[in-house]
Design a protein that fits this description.
The structure is a single chain. Helix 4 packs antiparallel against helix 5. The protein has two domains: 2-109, no CATH class; 115-227, CRO Repressor (2-Layer Sandwich). It has helices at residues 2-5, 8-16, 22-45, 55-73, 79-102, 104-111, 135-144, 182-185; strands spanning 115-119, 122-123, 153-158, 164-168, 196-200, 206-209, 225-227. By secondary structure, the chain is of the alpha+beta class. It has eight helices and seven strands; from the N terminus they run H-H-H-H-H-H-E-E-H-E-E-H-E-E-E. The strands form two sheets. Strands 2-1-3-4 form a four-stranded antiparallel sheet, with helices on one face. A three-stranded antiparallel sheet has the order 6-5-7, with no helix packed on it.
Length: 235
């Protein structure tokens, strides 16, 4: 089968690259070493898991990850150069966390700060630009927590970890608010057709509006309204 034989060198290159079969055994050894170095490195970082990583910690993990991968199978990359990268990254991380615990300013610079999203049933339009935040994702997080309109929310924050924390009103304190259920939120009006309580689509401010009028929001000056909802929260 001379025809097949001409393909053998290509097949060999495809499977082994420029290395020989014995390098596979070396990869086995290199990978086990880098695995152990990674485990020790992450323990030294002081993290138990990866559920809540700040951006800064994520950068460290990405750095460790790329330094760990290469020496596993690149013959020209030695284990010691990767371990040096590890020691450097972990040291810089430890030094930075030391300064973070010492200074509030450094902490905010490196980890970001908690952002107010909802205050007393309205969006904190002063402290964040709603356009920056993926609204669908934000609404979806609120719905998962049993919120169907923002009049049910006393406070909501975007935490440093990227999670949204929600503190609802009690049923007695709850007020009419902007609905976040898709079939209600999509009914946005410029011209009010019937009198009632409406919520500003942009900031959530509620107003008693008369039929056949056009009104701008007194807070944010936007002009789109949705009929406010005063449903109780699902427990
Ligand atoms: Zn408004």
């Amino acid at each position: 089968m001379p025809f097949l034989l001409t393909f053998l060198p290509e097949l060999e290159a495809l499977l082994f690259g420029e290395q020989d079969v014995w390098f596979l055994a070396e990869i086995l050894f290199r990978t086990v070493v880098m695995y152990l170095v990674l485990v020790v490195g992450l323990r030294l970082m002081g993290k138990r898991g990866v559920r809540q990583l700040t951006i800064f910690e994520l950068v460290v993990i990405i750095g460790l990850g790329s330094a760990a991968g290469d020496p596993m199978f690149y013959k020209e990359v030695g284990l010691l150069s990767a371990i040096t990268v590890f020691v450097t990254i972990i040291s810089v991380y430890r030094i930075t966390t030391y300064f973070i615990t010492k200074s509030k300013k450094v902490e905010q610079l490196v980890e970001g700060k908690t952002i107010c999203l909802i205050e007393d049933g309205r969006f904190c339009v002063e402290s964040f630009d709603k356009e920056d935040l993926a609204q669908d994702e934000f609404f979806s997080e609120l719905r998962v927590k049993g919120i169907s309109h923002i009049g049910q929310v006393h406070r909501a924050y975007l935490e440093v970890s990227g999670e949204v924390s929600v503190f609802p009103f009690s049923d007695e304190e709850m007020r009419p608010g902007l609905p976040i259920l898709p079939h209600e939120f999509q009914n946005q009006l410029l011209n009010i057709t019937e009198s009632g309580i409406y919520a500003c689509v942009h900031c959530g401010k509620t107003e008693q509006l008369k039929a056949l009028t056009r009104t701008n929001c007194p807070i944010c000056k936007e002009n789109k309204w949705v009929k406010a909802v005063s449903r109780k929260r699902v427990q």
